[in-house]
Specification:
Elements (H helix, E strand, L loop, with lengths): L4 H4 L5 H14 L5 E2 L11 H12 L12 H15 L8 E4 L1 H13 L5 E6 L3 H9 L3 E6 L10 H7 L4 E7 L11 H13 L3 E5 L20 H4 L2 E6 L12 E4 L2 H13 L6 H12 L3 H23 L13 E2 L4 H4 L4 E2 L2 E2 L3 H12 L1 E2 L1 E2 L9 E4 L4 H15 L2
Parallel strand pairs: 1-12, 3-4, 3-5, 5-6, 6-7
Antiparallel strand pairs: 2-8, 7-8, 9-14, 10-11, 13-14
Helix pairs in contact: 3-11, 4-11, 5-6, 5-10, 12-15
The structure holds pyridoxal-5'-phosphate.
Pyridoxal-5'-phosphate binds next to helix 5.
Length: 397
């Protein structure tokens, strides 16, 4: 009874159950292979680490301005201008403890209780809970494997009501790897303008794209669209800096200022040393990104090919991020029995694969998408081969 309704409403991450179980098995001495990771397996590049060490040695270890240091905001402005062709000024930028905090601040700043937030699914695990925390209502829009898990403007329009406040767009997408193209973004943007809606675009996987895919931010379409967009990005995935906790948002001044107020009374500034290191990440040499991207690309091709060879799996070619997202309905239909229980959904299947093959992966239900599994290829090629062999073996007829 002491726990608030707000907190009671929030579901713990489903992925934690699998991750905790995998860790327990590892402690028991089992050789668990993990495809569960949401982070690059590479180390943070040396030039970035050196910048952090030098920040410590120079005593850059005090509080900074709550919304981030000017030097980093300027680096972000420079990056957005040269990479994304969109121009911002200092008051339109905030630096936070990861893109996750930016998203949290943005949703809390924009939503009143009862407001509706359009959320294409499959989607990353935290959006739904962050929306609920703001006492707003997630309105799911189902994207389909046949349409490469991409939203059409017609699907968006169908779900718009007088209470709709904003759309969350995540491209490249976690978990599907979908990357939106210019024409698709234009159609969605037209609709947002027509109905006076905001767009939060989460571009954290921007640099990890493959084949012919190109990353384009919706904010760069024109000034009108820029004025309704809160662009969110960070250094976690592109520079293998997940533990450093630096993300940033760019958007209209009043919204950024609202986000800064929340941050000022919750966490204050993100880590001072990590901010200095992030300046180097954004402005320093960029060749390490390409090395990492190439390695992911090779693993991606291998993993997708192998997944499609497993009977009952069908996996699209993901063109962004570092996840494969196979449809496993063909296996679920077989009604395999395990521990005298039928494997009837993605959670049961991931549990079976973990216990029997000692391979950890995430059930689609964690992403509001039953009938799928998410496998991260941010792990060594050796583990990918071995892990897929094991999955294939236990699912053989
Ligand atoms: C789609 C998406 N957005 C945001 C984040 C959070 O990133 P950060 O480490 O910058 O908080 C993640 C991390 O997994 C993610 O997958």
């Amino acid at each position: 009874m002491t726990i608030s309704e707000r907190v009671k409403n929030i579901n713990p991450s489903q992925t934690l159950a699998i991750t905790a179980q995998a860790l327990k098995m590892k402690r028991e001495g089992k050789k668990v292979i993990s495809f569960a990771a949401g982070e690059p397996d590479f180390d943070t590049p040396e030039n970035i680490k050196e910048e952090a060490i030098s920040a410590i040695n120079q005593g850059f270890t005090k509080y900074t301005a709550s919304s981030g240091i000017i030097e980093l905001k300027e680096a972000i402005i420079e990056k957005l201008k040269s990479d994304n062709k969109v121009e911002y000024i200092l008051s339109e930028i905030i630096v936070s403890n990861g893109a996750k905090q930016c998203l949290f601040n943005a949703i809390l700043t924009l939503c009143n209780p009862g407001d509706e937030v359009l959320l294409p699914i499959p989607c990353w695990v935290s959006y739904t809970e962050q929306i609920k925390f703001a006492q707003a209502v997630p309105i799911f829009i189902n994207t389909r494997q046949e349409e490469a898990f991409k939203l059409s403007a017609a699907q968006v329009e169908e779900k718009i009501s007088p209470k709709t406040k904003l759309l969350i767009l995540n491209s490249p997408n976690n978990p599907t790897g979908a990357v939106y193209e210019e024409e698709e973004l234009k159609k969605i943007a037209q609709l947002l303008l027509k109905y006076n809606l905001y767009c939060i675009c989460d571009e954290i996987y921007e640099k990890l794209i493959y084949d012919e895919a190109k990353h384009l931010t919706i904010a760069s379409l024109n000034n009108e669209v820029k004025n309704i967009t809160i662009l969110i990005n960070g250094v976690s995935k592109s520079y293998a800096m997940t533990g450093w906790r630096i993300g940033y948002a760019a958007g209209p001044e009043d919204i950024i200022s609202g986000m800064s107020k929340i941050q000022g009374h919750s966490t204050s500034n993100p880590n001072s040393i990590a901010q200095k290191a992030s300046v180097e990440a954004l402005l320093g040499r960029q060749d390490t990104i390409e090395k990492m991207r190439k390695a992911f690309d090779e693993r991606r091709k291998y993993m997708v090919k192998r997944l499609n060879e497993i009977e009952g799996f069908s996996c699209l070619n993901p063109t962004g991020a570092f996840y494969a997202f196979p449809n496993v309905n063909g296996v679920l239909k077989r009604g395999i029995e395990y521990n005298s229980k039928k494997i009837k959904n993605s959670f049961d299947l991931s549990d079976f694969i973990l216990k029997e093959a000692e391979v950890a992966l995430i059930p689609g239900s964690a992403f509001e998408a039953e009938g799928y599994l998410r496998l991260s290829y941010a792990t060594s090629m050796e583990d990918i081969k071995e892990g897929l062999d094991r999955i294939e073996n236990i699912l053989r007829y």
